[in-house]
Amino acid sequence: MKKIIHQLLPFIKKFKSHVILNVLFNLLYALFSSLAFVSLIPMLNVLFDKTTIVRKAPVWTGIGDIKDYGENLLNYKVSGYLQDGNAQMALVIVIAIVISTFILKNLFGYLAMQHVMFLKNGVLTALRKDMYNKIIQLPLGFYSKRQKGDVMARILGDINEMQNSFFIILELIVREPLTIIFSLILMFTISWELSLFVLCFIPIAGFMISRIGKSLKSKSLRAQQESGKLISIVEESLTGLKIVKSYNAESIFTNKFTNSADKILNLSNKIGLKNNLAGPVSEVLGIATIAVLLWYGGKLVLIDKVIEGTTFIAFMGLAYAILTPAKAISKASYKVKNGMAAADRVFEILHEENSMPDLPNAKELGDFKDRISVENISFKYEDEFVLKNFSIQVPKGKTVALVGQSGSGKSTIANLVTRFYDVNKGSIKIDGIDIKNVTKKSLREHMGLVTQDSILFNDSIKNNILIGKPNATDEEIIDALKIANAWEFVQKLPEGIDTNVGDAGNNFSGGQKQRLSIARAVLKNPPIMILDEATSALDTESERLVQLALENMMKNRTSIVIAHRLSTIQNADEIIVMQHGEIVEQGTHSDLLAKNGMYKRLVEMQSFD
Question: Which residue from 100, 130, 407, 524 could staple onto 468, CB 3.0 to 4.6 Å apart?
Answer without folding.
Answer: 524
